[in-house]
Amino acid sequence: MRIRYRYVTYRYTDGSQQQLERHYRQLLHDALRQSHQSILQRSATWRPLADIRESAEMMTIKIELAGMREEDIEVTLYEDALVVSGERQDDPERENLYYHEAQIRYGPFRVEVLILSPIDREGIQARYENGFLWVDLPKKIPESKSERVRIQRSITKE
After folding, report:
1. What residues contact residue 12 under an 8 Å CB cut-off, 6+ apart?
2. Closest Cα to residue 130, out of 78, 71, 66?
């Protein structure tokens, strides 16, 4: 597994509402396009199942990548996004082989996760075990400097 860090902004340049609309329009377009393609077509990029959990201290991404080798998975951390990509290979095809069912996706895949809070890049951990990729992104804890605020007394006229 390769982990790369990129200090490039991953967001659109326009506002967040327009970004969401564009993102969901693209998702709808991709879903409609994939529904028209053959189920056995291997060239379309697909998105594996993923769980994204967040607490006050950590953001954890768990991605199902059964049958993958660790060296075939690439994890790239941008300034505000985590991108996991790679390609799952099928067994070499044999002649006169017919599928009764074809539910496992093969070919290139990509998972994009937007990161909205500052991340401690030194503490990032990624592990691949039992067909799942786990990426732990610890959040930066802001330094809290407490400062006493002085209350001014109001002058009252009598």
Report:
1. 18, 19, 22
2. 66
**What is the pTM (predicted TM-score) of this model?**
0.65
Angle CA(104)–CA(133)–CA(93) in degrees, nearest 5? 30
Task: Judge whether 128 lies within some domain.
Answer: yes
Which residue did the predictor score with more confidence, 93 or 72?
A: 72
The structure tokens 């093969």 sit at: 106
Tokens 């007394």, residue located? 153
| Four-residue CA torsion sign, 24, 136, 52, 139 | negative
The answer to the question of residue 96 being in a domain is yes
CA dihedral 8, 9, 12, 15 (to 10 degrees): -160
Distance CA 127, CA 62 (A): 10
For 113-124, the pLDDT digits (tens) are 999 889 999 999
Rg of the chain, C-alpha, whole Å:
23
Domain CATH code at residue 96: 2.60.40.790
Q: Is residue 67 part of a domain?
A: yes
| Domain around 81 | 2-9+42-138
